[in-house]
Amino acid sequence: ETGVTQTPRHLVMGMTNKKSLKCEQHLGHNAMYWYKQSAKKPLELMFVYSLEERVENNSVPSRFSPECPNSSHLFLHLHTLQPEDSALYLCASSQDGPGLAAQETQYFGPGTRLLVL
Amino acid sequence: GQNIDQPTEMTATEGAIVQINCTYQTSGFNGLFWYQQHAGEAPTFLSYNVLDGLEEKGRFSSFLSRSKGYSYLLLKELQMKDSASYLCAVRSPSGFKTIFGAGTRLFVKA
């Protein structure tokens, strides 16, 4: 298994559907991230988990609900989304923590391209 | 506020050298990253600078001036496969939060 994997790669859903995005990292990292990438906009950090605890929550609407059951898996549960939520959702992982070298980079998964109709 | 600026698009010729600039204004600084992102793919790590100066890695070099809030990515001997978006990102002191610029789309022409 390579690096960071995400499923599904593509998802089309209606505004009343409930779906979940899955991310798995095989790098032994202790921090995982969800980002949203819309066309021609910067990557937007949504959530950060470190050692399975949420450490960042960037004013994300409650229709996005993250879950981190262990340090290797991260989910993003979606419900009653809006068309403007259509974007590429990227998961990343890194080895982070107090006292560690700050150059520990984030490794990204291939993303889930989401279309909300 | 937090702001990272980089040019939207650049075009360069195969074999040439191109410099992609990035200026930042952030509340706190703990390093600057450059990522490469091909269309439809995930960003991949290129370089990291936390001290002033130039870091060289093969055909790619990255420069940082913390006092000026400025960095650049230098790509030498351009190849067609270098056509991609290049993302500048600043890491916060907490270590977990990284602010990304909107990216510079580089087109390499023959």
Q: Name the average pLDDT of chain A.
A: 89
Largest sheet of chain B: 6 strands, mixed
Structural category of chain A is mainly beta
What's the β-strand tally of chain A? Answer: 11
Largest sheet of chain A: 7 strands, mixed
Helical stretch tally of chain A = 0
The Rg value of chain A, from CA coordinates, equals 14 Å
The residue ranges of chain B in which pLDDT falls below 50 over 5 or more consecutive positions are: none
Oligomerization category of the chains in this entry: heterodimer
Radius of gyration of chain B: 13 Å
Helix content of chain A: under 10%
Contiguous helical run count of chain B: 0
Strand percent estimate of chain B:
over 45%
Report the order of strands and helices of chain A. Answer: EEEEEEEEEEE
What's the helix-strand series of chain B?
EEEEEEEEEEE
Overall geometry of chain B: globular
Shape, principal axes of CA atoms of chain A: globular
Low-confidence stretches of chain A: none
- N-end to C-end Cα span of chain B: 41 Å
Write up what this structure looks like.
- The complex is a heterodimer of chains A (117) and B (110).
- Chain A is mostly beta strands.
- Chain A has strands at residues 4-7, 10-13, 18-25, 31-37, 44-50, 53-57, 64-70, 73-79, 87-94, 107-108, 112-116.
- Chain A is globular and about 35 Å long.
- By secondary structure, chain B is mainly β.
- In chain B, 0% of the residues lie in helices and 56% in strands.
- Chain B is built from no helices and eleven strands.
- Chain B has strands at residues 3-5, 9-13, 18-25, 32-37, 44-49, 53-57, 60-65, 70-75, 84-91, 98-100, 104-109.
- In chain B, strand 9 and strand 10 (98-100) form a beta hairpin.
- The model of chain B has no long low-confidence stretch (mean pLDDT 93).
- Classes of the chains: A mainly beta (117), B mainly beta (110).
